[in-house]
Amino acid sequence: MLEVLEGIGVNTTKDNKSVVEKSDLIVIAVKPNIVSCVLKEVAPVVITEKHLFVSIAAGITIRSIELNLPPGTHVVRVMPNTPALVQAGASVVASGSNAVPEDLVVVQAMLRTVGICDECPEYLLDAVTGVSGSGPAYAFAAIEALSDGGVKMGLPRELSTKLAAQTLLGAAKMVLETGKHPGQLKDEVCSPAGTTISAMHVLEQNGFRGLWMDAVEAATLRAKELGSINQ
Asked: Any idea which positions bind NADP(+) (predicted)?
């Protein structure tokens, strides 16, 4: 990986202290169970009025980060998601006790280069994890299931998957760009006695909405558990 980065002109090093000394903004992107070790290692070279630490480590609270760094260090915590890899990410930021508005401006500007970015209090980040952090997996499963349905009805796999993915993409764009409630958009597709309302009936009979809500709840609760384990 370092060789790849060097190949595109990125300065690399295996020395964490060197990274901090030569940077203004430091992204904490290591495994949650070693965050405290890394922070304690670099703490001696942190300059509180210069450095901004941005954490994407799942379940690691702002307080635990601040406790491992010099008093007054600026910290911002982020919950991103994987569609950032294709510039379609959804990120939410929460500011630490020493962060200033300018810190959030910098972090949000950075994250908006790969998608959307909003702000919320830290106590809501576990719920954000349940919706958008884990959400891409739910969407992938939905695309796969929709594609399977098409294959069952005779469509070639490649075409069925393409149609399923584009359908979810298009539906998402309609929600974001029209400002209409998803329920209203759903109703606009459901003609009286038509194919779509028949399909919706089957989904409702099998607890479709409840399953998605339960999934968000399960991911949120697990995020809280992981946070308590890694403090």
From this structure: 29-32
